[in-house]
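Quick review question:
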């Protein structure tokens, strides 16, 4: 069994990106705006990781953090000035329930929507031949694709199961690899996962710890586990959506959790940021 680690790849890609930025000889630093509402501990950790890596690249990362009680209208007004100053903008999710996520995403100019979650970006991604708009592949989806490319995992004429249909991962990954020649089947909580055991490649982004077990994968399958699930009783333990111990002796290759797709996600987000100014 091959372990598809993303740790060293992320380090290498971060250095390449740093060299690319240095070679651009820009008149000022690239500006990243990060919008966060509330004080969720997990969100705080993710945001600080993004800021740390951005600053390593010489990017000016500004955190715009607001109280959870902020109104939708007030946040939209704040977004106007953030849009004017920043080259790329991300909104740390989740937002409070009283603020519709899509409304805020659509308030970001599409050319600065480096998370790729606005309706305009989504239309461009899925209807490329019908628009001249450039688009961004959401960072986690891009991380999956770049990890597969790095390990020379070919999808053409392969049966691929994608578990999870989120706009962040499942939907864009399924769309892109289908265009690359794969036979794609998608699954979610409504369909169940019966049939996944026939796939050559299984990509799991369901958000359910240890959902995929040994009977759900075929001998020699390649498994990409995107899940990061925290244990309520063991807060320092992170589990994937795949039961690693259950499948490890059956699959040909698998991403570890942590240390697989995760390390590449922030790097791909910053790649989107650099792409936004080209």
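Suggested answer, residue by residue:
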């Amino acid at each position: 069994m091959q372990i598809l680690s993303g740790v060293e790849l992320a380090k290498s890609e971060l250095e390449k990106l740093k060299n690319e930025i240095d070679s651009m000889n820009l008149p000022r630093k690239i500006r990243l705006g990060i919008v966060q509402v509330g004080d969720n501990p997990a969100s705080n950790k993710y945001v600080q990781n993004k800021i740390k890596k951005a600053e390593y690249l010489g990017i000016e990362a500004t955190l715009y953090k607001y109280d959870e009680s902020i109104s939708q209208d007030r946040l939209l007004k704040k977004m106007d000035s953030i849009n004017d100053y920043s080259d790329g903008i991300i909104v740390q999710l989740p937002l409070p329930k009283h603020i519709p996520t899509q409304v805020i995403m659509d308030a970001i100019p599409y050319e600065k929507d480096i998370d790729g979650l606005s309706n305009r970006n989504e239309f461009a991604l899925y209807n490329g031949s019908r628009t001249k708009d450039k688009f961004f592949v959401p960072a986690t989806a891009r991380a999956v694709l770049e990890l597969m490319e790095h390990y020379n995992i070919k999808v053409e004429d392969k049966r691929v199961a994608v578990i999870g249909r989120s706009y962040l991962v499942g939907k864009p990954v399924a769309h892109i690899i289908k265009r690359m020649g794969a036979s794609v089947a998608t699954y979610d909580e409504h369909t169940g996962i019966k049939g996944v055991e026939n796939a050559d490649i299984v990509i799991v982004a369901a958000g359910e710890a240890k959902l995929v077990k040994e009977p759900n994968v075929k001998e020699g399958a390649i498994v990409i586990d995107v899940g990061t699930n925290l244990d309520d009783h063991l807060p320092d333990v992170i589990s994937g959506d795949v039961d690693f111990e259950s499948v490890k002796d059956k699959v040909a290759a698998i991403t570890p959790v942590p240390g697989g797709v995760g390390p590449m996600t922030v790097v791909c987000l910053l790649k989107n940021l650099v792409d936004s100014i080209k």
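Why it works: Residues 139-262 form a domain with the Rossmann fold fold (CATH 3.40.50.720). The chain has two domains: 28-109, 139-262.
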